[in-house]
TrEMBL record:
It comes from Pseudoduganella umbonata. GO terms for molecular function: ATP binding; metal ion binding; NAD binding; NAD+ kinase activity. The active site is at residue 76. Pfam families: NAD_kinase, NAD_kinase_C. Keywords: ATP-binding, Cytoplasm, Kinase, NAD, NADP, Nucleotide-binding, Transferase. This is NAD kinase. Coiled coil: none annotated. NCBIfam families: PRK01231.1, PRK02155.1. It is an enzyme of class 2 (transferase).
Amino acid sequence: MPATPAMYNTIALVVRPNTAGIEDSVRDVLGFLREGGYSVVFETDTAAHLNMPEIPAMSAQGIGEKCDCAIVMGGDGTMLGIARQLAPFEVPLIGINQGRLGFMTDIPLEGMLPVLSRILAGTHKAERRTLLEGRVLRDGKAIHVGLAVNDVVVARGAGAGMVELRVDVDDHFMYNQRSDGLIVSTPTGSTAYALSAGGPLLHPTLGGIVLVPIAPHALSNRPIVLPDSSEIVIEINRGRDITVNFDMQTFASLMPQDRIHIRRSPHAITFLHPEGWSYYNTLREKLHWNEYPSTDGKI
């Protein structure tokens, strides 16, 4: 194990709760980090779920102010939650996959310690991702503010009819839309809900924001990619049980005439990937490109 680089002295561990058997993996990572001379802290919710009182706990703000990087052990949902909180502090994130897909938590449990060793020693690929910020205005006053790594989604309730939306971009009227809702996605989110709704894949380095209608009434209403300098305003014209959510994790209930202002956040997040990491390899693996069912060696 190499000496601790000055850039990574204090490391936060963020762990998905209620995951069977995760304690053993956490202890492996803790032992590895302590042996390497790193100071380790738990994120507050992680500390509450793990019975390891010898490890100090910090809030997300404390981690942002005191820690040099954060290791996230979980799935992409765990990563999304902490990434939004740490974005203002420029704390880089390392993801160990304890979930299913793992687009952002990309280090497998098997062989994770040698990979961590190389990343913390400075042998890694750093990748910055943009975020969206949204403000919900009612009668001109902000009632909810949120950040999104993946997407901001305006959608109808399960038992409600279509929602009618007006969409403006940079003070220019775009369209009135009748649909089940609208997804406003970052390039990171283009592999998430936006993709399942028929949106395009955007490379993470592209400066774009994609709008994807959810089951639009007019079949000609198609996804569109906008410059990430755009400001998007969505106004609720009509509908019941409408919500806006940020990464499917924070919500606000909406009423007719509410307006959602969405733009690129001034904050960004940095992922530290293993050396040799490739976005295209990730797509091929996670989306099962060029894979065929087994035919016992026959084509």
